[in-house]
Structure formats: structure tokens, C-alpha cells
């Protein structure tokens, strides 16, 4: 390997105030299977391969930046969730994490249902031929047009998010001569993120109807009187990137408590509860996510225990994982451009994308890993910040990362675990074109969402 085309940046941990990379990893060429898609490895030349394709070949064929998605891994993760929950429960993939028609077909084939939260997601699902009965429609401000389309299409459930929406959906369904199956989304007073959960003040948010003060009970009372609705259950979603099951425990306890109150007041045992999504994935080696079978076991046990204590029939459980299915299955492939060492600080490595293809670092201070993937290197570790090409200093892709000191323009680097909330939150900032999503498997590569073109941009600009 050629050494140090660029001077190494500082390698001392003392310039880092936060982040996982307090010290360089022992082997910069190693690929931690926790953060990379399952078929990823290096070939004899040190080039990263996925689904039987080299990243150098993929870059040549499809250009960079590009999201590279491991189809076998996606299907395996979807199947693992399905199998873990068995036939007495339902798994709704949360389409907001990443949705395309190919993904809808894979989900369909693997026996998963789908959660959509806008007319656009619903249109994608329907156009890919998803059985509407297997679609759940979410959103805190569904328009009349969206509700009408969902009811007409025959979606399996609408998740009601406000008192106004209860009346609106019931009215639209009745006008269409239908009785719409629905759940009511409640806020249980728990908000969970990563390793922690808090149990105060999180009812102060736009989603759901608070359990507190009897509001959720009142919503149920109203829904049960409306002919246009068939109330089938209660929904709760407590947060994102959760590793600790105790937040779900409190949520299940409170949802089951409401089911018990409903039974006592109305003599009705609602048949379903949905505990939402939010299960965490590994973005860096420091994260330790749980396997679907552990999550399924924990959630089923919690609900069963709570129902037995309340003498309720155990309802059918559903969950809505998005990130946990698609997140780990893709990485973003970038070409290195400018490499700028800043004396006694770090080296800034610019890539040909940035905050337009991954807003999560700027928006949530999210942590990512990164690796040189077009070759291996035995150069020293160099402390870097991987940044994009946008006109904004917050345009950071990976805040603190070690890359080999001989990194040079033209090298390919990849950021793993970008399958969720990267393409789906991508923008055209600076009129940068959104990258394609390329699905790979068995030595084949196929574009499932094509790269945006300047023509696409200009078509929207009507002059
Ligand atoms: N169900 C409901 C009702 C939700 O609101 C969400 C996510 C999910 C399921 C799926 O959650 P997941 O399993 O994917 O964590 N843009 C943020 C995440 C926002 C999640 C919003 N709701 C991010 O990039 O981290």
C-alpha cells in the first residue's frame, strides 16, 4: 500500500470531546459484522464485496454516492421478525424507514404487513400490489383526501390520532358505506430513546391521545358509538433506537390497564394491541441491539403477564419495526474528494454526498462508522471528520472517525447502517441529486430507486 499521500491528522484522543472513537480501532481494515450488512466481506484484493459484487464494480456501474442494499439481508431480517412473532401476532414494517416498490414486494413475499403514514407511502404500497387489508395507515394530520383514499382502498386499519380524526374517519367511512377498522393511538407517558426511558413530560407532543386525565378513555367512548368505525385495538409507540425493554414494559402495563377499563365500562374486550416500533440497531461497535426472537419473547411475556393479572383475554399483538429491518441492510458508498488536514485538529475528508443523503448526523447528532472499502491499508490511523459537499459547516456525515492516513481522492469509503431514514429523509439541498438505491444479491445488482437527474430537478421547476 502506498503510504501517506496526505499527512496524517492528529491521532490523539484528547481532541475528541465525545463519540465512540476515543481510541483508534485495532484494525482499520476489519469490518464489524454488527454494523455491516450480512453478506459483506473483503475479497483477496481487500475490496469490499456485498451480495457477490465488489464496491469498485458497483461504483463503476452505478456511480457514487449510492445506497447499496443487501437484498438477502433485508429478506432474512424481515423473515426473522415474522418467525419470531409467529402466527398469533403481526409484524408491520414501518415504511417511513425506507419504502420502494421492490421493498413492498419483498415484504409481501416474506409475510409482513406494512405501516404507511402518508398518501405517498400508501400510493407506493398499492402500486406494488400490497393487499390493502395488510396496510395500517398512520399520521397525526391525515388529510380528508388521504383518509378517503385509504378507506376506499380498504386498508386493514387506520390508526386514529386525535378526537377530530375519530369523527372524520367515521364520517368518511359512513359516507362510503363502510365500517373502517381502527385503532386509537394513545400516549402512555413513556418516551424511550436508546438505552434510557423517561416517564415524565412526554405527553407534551403531537402524536396520540394522552392516557392521562382520562382522555384516551373518552376517545374510546366516542369511537365505540360511531357506526363508521370498528374499534379493534389500542396503539402505542414510545420512541426510537431503543435497546432497553423496560419502556415497553411500562407501556404494555398502561395499555393493558386501558383495555381493562374498557372491558369494565363497556363490556368489550378489544382484540388487538400494537406496541409500535423503535427497536435499536448497531450504528457503531458500541451498540448492542437485541435479536427479534428476544424482543418477541419479552413483549409477549409482558403482555401475557399483564393480561393475566387483569383477567383479560390476551389480545393479538402487533409491532412496527422499520429501522431494525432495513437499517443494517444498506451502506452508503462515497468517493473521497478533498482531504484537508487541519494542524493539531483533525483531517476533513469530503465525500461526493453529505447531509442531502444522510441528515441524521446533523439532525440528531447520530453516530456512524466508516471504512475505506476500495482497498485495505496498513497506514496509521488518522483522526477524521467525514463531511459532505454542501454549503454548510454542519454538513457532517461521520463526526469522529479513524481512517487510514494514506486516504486519497478517488478512494471509496462506505458508511454502514444507512438503510433506515437516510434515503427516506434525503433532500435536494444545493440542488444536489439524490443517490440511487441499488439492491444486490447473488452476484446481481439492480437499481430499485434510480439516481435523480438534473432533468428531474428542472421538470419540477416550471419556470
Ligand atoms: N411506528 C410508528 C407509529 C412510528 O412513529 C415509527 C417511527 C415506527 C413505527 C418505526 O420506528 P423504527 O422501528 O423505525 O424506529 N427519523 C428518525 C426516526 C423517526 C421515527 C418516527 N417514527 C431517525 O432517523 O432516527
Q: Which consecutive residue ranges, at least 5 long each, have pLDDT under 50? A: 1-19
Determine the N-to-C terminus distance.
Answer: 51 Å
Radius of gyration, whole Å: 24 Å
Bound molecules: ligand LLP
Q: What is the CATH topology of the largest domain?
A: Lyase, Ornithine Decarboxylase, Chain A, domain 1
Would you report the number of β strands?
24
Structural class: alpha/beta
- According to CATH, what is the class of the largest domain? Mainly Beta
Q: Name the CATH homologous superfamily of the largest domain.
A: Lyase, Ornithine Decarboxylase, Chain A, domain 1
- Name the average pLDDT: 94
Describe the structure.
It is globular and about 70 Å long. The protein has helices at residues 55-62, 71-85, 101-110, 119-127, 144-153, 163-175, 215-225, 246-266, 292-310, 323-326, 360-364, 454-460, and strands at residues 41-42, 48-50, 53-54, 66-70, 89-94, 113-116, 135-137, 157-160, 180-187, 191-194, 196-198, 209-210, 229-235, 239-242, 272-274, 316-319, 330-342, 346-351, 371-372, 381-387, 396-404, 412-416, 437-441, 444-449. The protein is of the alpha/beta class and 463 residues long. It starts with 40 loop residues before the first strand and ends with a helix. The protein has twelve helices and 24 strands. The strands form four sheets. Strands 4, 17, 18, 19, 20, 21, 22, 23 and 24 form a nine-stranded mixed sheet that branches. The longest helix is centred in the middle third of the chain and has 21 residues, at 246-266. It has two domains: 12-70 and 328-460, Lyase, Ornithine Decarboxylase, Chain A, domain 1 (Beta Barrel); 138-321, Alanine racemase (TIM Barrel). The protein binds ligand LLP. Ligand LLP binds next to helix 10 and helix 11.
Amino acid at each position: 500500500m502506498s503510504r501517506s499521500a496526505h499527512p496524517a491528522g492528529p491521532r490523539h484522543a484528547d481532541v475528541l470531546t465525545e463519540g465512540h472513537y476515543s481510541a483508534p480501532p485495532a484494525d482499520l481494515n476489519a469490518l464489524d459484522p454488527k454494523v455491516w450488512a450480512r453478506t459483506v466481506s473483503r475479497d483477496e484484493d481487500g475490496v469490499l464485496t456485498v451480495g457477490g459484487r465488489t464496491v469498485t464494480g458497483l461504483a463503476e456501474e452505478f456511480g457514487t454516492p449510492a445506497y447499496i442494499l443487501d437484498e438477502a439481508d433485508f429478506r432474512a431480517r424481515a423473515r426473522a421478525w415474522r418467525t419470531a412473532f409467529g402466527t398469533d401476532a403481526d409484524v408491520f414494517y414501518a415504511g417511513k424507514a425506507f419504502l420502494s416498490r421492490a421493498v413492498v414486494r419483498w415484504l409481501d413475499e416474506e409475510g409482513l404487513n406494512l405501516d404507511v403514514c402518508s398518501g405517498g407511502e400508501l400510493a407506493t404500497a398499492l402500486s406494488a400490489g400490497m393487499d390493502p387489508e395488510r396496510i395500517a395507515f398512520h399520521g397525526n394530520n391525515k388529510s380528508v383526501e388521504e383518509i378517503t383514499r385509504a378507506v376506499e382502498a380498504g386498508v386493514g386499519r387506520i390508526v386514529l390520532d386525535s378526537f377530530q380524526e375519530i369523527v372524520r374517519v367515521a364520517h368518511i367511512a359512513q359516507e362510503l358505506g363502510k365500517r373502517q377498522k381502527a385503532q386509537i393511538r394513545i400516549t402512555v407517558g413513556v418516551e424511550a430513546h436508546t438505552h434510557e426511558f423517561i416517564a415524565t413530560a412526554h405527553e407534551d407532543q403531537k402524536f396520540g391521545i394522552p392516557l392521562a386525565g382520562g382522555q384516551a378513555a373518552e376517545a374510546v367512548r366516542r369511537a365505540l358509538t360511531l357506526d363508521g368505525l370498528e374499534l379493534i385495538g389500542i396503539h402505542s409507540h414510545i420512541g426510537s433506537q431503543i435497546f432497553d425493554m423496560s419502556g415497553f414494559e411500562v407501556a404494555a402495563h398502561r395499555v393493558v390497564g386501558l383495555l381493562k377499563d374498557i372491558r369494565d365500562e363497556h363490556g368489550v374486550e378489544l382484540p388487538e394491541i400494537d406496541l409500535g416500533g423503535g427497536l435499536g440497531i448497531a450504528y457503531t461497535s458500541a451498540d448492542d441491539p437485541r435479536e427479534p426472537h428476544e424482543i418477541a419473547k419479552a413483549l409477549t411475556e409482558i403482555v401475557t403477564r399483564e393480561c393475566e393479572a387483569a383477567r383479560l383475554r390476551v389480545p393479538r399483538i402487533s409491532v412496527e419495526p422499520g429501522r431494525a429491518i432495513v437499517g443494517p441492510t444498506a451502506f452508503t458508498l462515497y468517493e473521497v474528494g478533498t482531504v484537508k488536514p487541519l494542524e493539531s485538529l483533525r483531517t476533513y475528508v469530503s465525500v461526493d454526498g453529505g447531509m442531502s443523503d444522510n441528515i441524521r448526523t446533523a439532525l440528531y447528532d447520530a453516530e456512524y462508522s466508516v471504512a475505506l472499502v476500495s482497498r485495505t491499508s496498513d497506514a496509521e490511523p488518522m483522526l477524521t471528520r467525514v463531511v459532505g459537499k454542501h454549503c454548510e459547516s454542519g454538513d457532517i456525515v461521520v463526526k469522529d472517525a479513524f481512517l487510514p492516513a494514506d486516504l486519497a481522492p478517488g478512494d471509496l469509503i462506505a458508511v454502514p447502517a444507512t438503510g433506515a431514514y437516510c434515503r427516506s429523509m434525503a433532500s435536494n439541498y444545493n440542488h444536489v441529486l439524490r443517490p440511487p438505491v441499488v439492491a444486490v444479491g447473488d452476484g446481481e445488482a439492480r437499481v430499485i430507486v434510480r439516481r435523480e437527474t438534473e432533468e428531474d430537478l428542472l421538470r419540477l421547476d416550471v419556470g
